Amino acid sequence: MKYFFIRLIRKINPFAFLYPEGDKGIEAVGHREYIGGNWDEIGALQFNFLVSKGLKPESFLLDIACGSLRLGVKAIPYLEAGHYLGIEKEPGLVKAGLEQEMDPVVKAEKAPRIIISDSFEFARLEQKADFAMAQSLFSHLPPDMINHCFKNLHACLVDGGAFYATYFEVTTARKNPDKPHDHGYFAYTKQEMLAFGEDNGYSAEYIGEWNHPRDQRVVEYRKV
């Protein structure tokens, strides 16, 4: 099976709609800014958080919306060969991450497995994950797409596998946009975020604050 050695994302941005999604937007602002900047800070935050939750070199990690490899450049050298799994809808981000952020020797030795997909086709990776991470993905998606992510992921996690997802939290449910947007703003209540997991076959534990620079909160979901 051929893999593209290949994330998506951003934060509240008053200029969100001043440049397009996809390759033109990536070219306009660069692969680091397109996914929200804070490259080293958020990459290290994710990696250290996962290690604190039990990520080991022998673990299989699924980076959902892996983009230009902000987490990948930390996780790929740490994990055993072939144990980093990524999925991303924008090939331009993946290309930039692989060519501009990854050491070519490390890339060859660690053989990350990454696919291009805009519909959460995790099964194409042909490997169940011990851990999955979606950092800021749900801050750009409407509820139907979040549910689709949870449903597709369930079969691709090991029993008891952990999925960590971040989001912008509000105290009262709001009407989010109907369509996803890489630089749009979507926010959910704690109760809504717990329900996404519980309604799709996961136990859900609210973690909340985890030192995210834009105050995104995090929830742990476990496959049951």
TrEMBL record:
UniProt keyword terms in alphabetical order: Methyltransferase, Transferase
Transmembrane stretches, start-end: none
Single GO molecular function: methyltransferase activity
Keyword Transferase found: yes
Domain of life: Bacteria
Gene3D superfamilies: Vaccinia Virus protein VP39
Protein name as catalogued: Class I SAM-dependent methyltransferase
Protein source organism: Candidatus Marimicrobium litorale
Lineage summary: Bacteria, Pseudomonadati, Pseudomonadota, Gammaproteobacteria, Cellvibrionales
